[in-house]
Amino acid sequence: MSVFISTKLAENMRKLLYITIIYVIVLASQAIADDNQPAANTNSTAAGAGSNVDWSNLSLDQLQNLKVTSVSKKPERAFDAAAAIYVITKEDIRRSGARSIPEALRLAPGVQVARAGANEWAISIRGFNDQFSNKLLVLMDGRSVYTPLFSGVYWDVQDTPLEDVKQIEVIRGPGATLWGANAVDGVINIITEEAANTQGKLVSTTYGNDEKGSTTVRVGGKSGDNTYYRIYGKYDNNAAEEKPNQQNAGDSGKNMRAGFRVDVNETTNNVTVQGDTYNNNEDQQLILPSLSVPFEMPAANNELSTGANLLTRWKHSYSDGSDSTLQIYYDHTTRSDVYADQTVNTVDFDFQHSLAEIDRNEITVGTGFRTVNDQIDGSQYVYFTPTGRIMNTYSAFIQDKIHIIEDKVFLTLGSKYEYNQFTQNELQPSARLSYLPTTNQTIWASVSRAVHTPDQDIQDITLHVAGTPFGYASLVGDSIAGLPLASSEVLIAYETGYRIQATKQLSFDMTAFYNDYSKLLSDFAVTPLELTATNPDSGESHGFEISSKWQATRDWDLSANYSHINMDLNIRTASLVTTNGKTPEDQYNLTSHYQFPYHIEMTNLLYTVAELPGIDIPSYTRFDTVFAWKADDNVELTLAGQNLFSPPHEEFTGFLYQLPEKIGSTYYANIRIRF
Question: Average per-residue pLDDT in the chain?
Answer without folding.
Answer: 85
